[in-house]
Design a protein that fits this description.
The protein has 12 helices and 24 strands. It is α+β, with helices and mostly antiparallel strands. Strands 2, 3, 4, 5 and 6 form a 5-stranded antiparallel beta sheet that branches. Strands 7, 8, 9, 10 and 11 form a 5-stranded antiparallel beta sheet that branches. The two termini are 40 Å apart.
Length: 463
């Protein structure tokens, strides 16, 4: 839900005018105009996500454009920033016709060894046995492993796709290739990062799915995070019991509504999140996104409760974090013009007084701009603030920025956190652990962590 929307928005924001036009033209199927535009433009031009015109033609199901590009000699296996080819797009969007056309257009069988494992991985995540069978029939080894060392069968068991697991076993999958991934100790026993980020808990938390919005409790015995499951988000949880971390389980999901961006209240008796849930919890999903919470009870978590009109509006409210005093920081596009609703998201805060949130106040222009500012983490003592933004000087689709509190109570001009943190992909969902030692965030659809020494370095350089 949110992540897909943001991806589309950020793609449009950062394109040049030509790029916007050429991809839109391909997606509209306007062949004559596309031919004209390509007179002075390389046929292998890529957008800011690294996707070619052929990626777009497949996603938009434009057969004439597809055939035109193939005849023109476009790179049929051009990779985007996530190493996905047009074949991956065909699998992702359940486009079997174009997948078959791409297979027929291959000059040789090299694609099998290079992309077979990642293609079958994507088909497993989509729980699409038809695509899995197509790949096997075209020579992909059902026991091939991806860059994480995971086989298709291991992935299917990880996502609890029982029918797919059985299908894979019937088609030659080796159950001995399924690893038992276990985590022990503080921070799941991971090797502590320095100033260079590391992926957090590979194949346990950070997997082939899209994980984001993570948060530990203060004692680092509970871990909550969001996962996108084929376009709909859910919240998962793992806890430390006698030095062993439990296998992640889903604690908030719905057949229609998405739940993501979990964050604990200061006393940890509430778990806040965002959702397109209907106010009554029964109707169709809302067109906008609100902030909600559940309360901790003796029997688990309560039913979702809307955070109320002092926080929520008719626009979208995203991500949540708190100061020690209970002040909530979040983002909203409630004051954006109709034309810029998808582009202009700002950061707000609401004080918590006598058990109630007060009217939300927008932060100043040292942080909020005409660009997109969201996914805000506030230091509990309000010494600094970290957030995601899309700006012309950025490294990718969305970067993490930081601002420090001045002695007079104002915020310093925000600073890009640099290329050690930010990449050509999308960095978002920052969170700093209660002990102040580690910054967690999402990058390239996985959860990463890094020492907060990077924050100290940025502050020292800014003085």
């Amino acid at each position: 839900m949110k992540r897909i929307l943001i991806g589309i928005v950020l793609t449009l924001i950062t394109h040049s005018l030509l790029a916007q036009n050429i991809y839109r033209t391909a997606c509209q199927g306007n062949l004559a105009r596309l031919d004209s535009m390509l007179l002075n433009t390389s046929i292998n031009i890529k957008d800011n996500r690294g996707r070619s015109i052929l990626h777009w033609a497949v996603a938009c199901k434009k057969e004439q454009v597809f055939n035109f590009l193939i005849k023109k000699g476009i790179n049929i296996n051009g990779e985007d920033n996530q190493k996905k080819t047009p074949m991956h797009i065909a699998v992702q969007y359940d486009n079997k016709k174009y997948f078959d056309l791409l297979i027929q257009s291959q000059l040789n069988s090299n694609w099998i060894n290079k992309y077979g494992a990642s293609l079958i991985e994507l088909a497993v995540l989509k729980k699409d046995s038809t695509f899995i069978k197509k790949l096997i029939d075209n020579g992909v080894n059902v026991n091939s492993t991806n860059d994480r060392g995971s086989s298709a069968l291991e992935i299917s068991k990880r996502i609890k796709a029982k029918n797919i697991s059985q299908f894979l076993l019937r088609n030659g999958a080796n159950k001995n290739k399924v690893r038992a991934i276990k985590m022990k100790g503080k921070y799941m026993g991971q090797e502590k990062p320095g100033i260079m980020p590391k992926m957090f808990a590979p194949n346990f938390i950070s997997t082939e799915e899209y994980e984001f919005g993570s948060v530990f409790n203060a004692t680092t015995t509970e871990f909550y995070y969001g996962v996108d499951v084929n376009g709909k988000s859910e919240i998962r949880y793992s806890e430390l019991n006698e030095d062993n971390w439990s296998k992640p389980k889903t604690i908030l999901s719905h057949k229609r509504y998405s739940y993501n961006d979990p964050f604990l209240s200061p006393n940890e008796n509430r778990l806040y999140f965002i959702s397109n849930r209907a106010i009554d919890g029964l109707g169709e999903e809302k067109e906008d996104i609100d902030i909600w919470y559940v309360e901790r009870t003796e029997n688990g978590w309560s039913e979702p409760i809307n955070a109320g009109t002092k926080i929520n509006s008719s626009g979208n409210e995203y991500y949540i974090s708190f100061t020690n005093k209970g002040t909530m920081y979040f983002s909203s596009n409630k004051n954006a013009s109709k034309e810029r609703k998808g582009f202009d998201q700002d950061i707000y805060y609401s004080e918590f007084i006598d058990g109630k949130f007060q009217k939300a106040i927008s932060l100043g222009d040292s942080i909020n701009t005409i660009d997109y500012e969201a996914d805000v983490f506030i230091d509990p003592e309000e010494k600094y603030i970290i957030f995601c933004s899309t700006r012309s000087e950025g490294f990718g689709r969305g970067d993490l920025y930081i601002s420090f509190k001045n002695s007079n109570g104002t915020w310093s001009k925000s600073i890009n956190m640099g290329k050690a943190i930010n990449t050509k992909n999308h960095e978002l969902c920052p969170f700093v652990t209660a002990d102040g030692k580690y910054l967690f965030y999402t990058s390239n659809e996985d959860i990463y962590w890094v020492s907060t020494e990077v924050i100290k370095e940025i502050k020292e350089k800014s003085n």
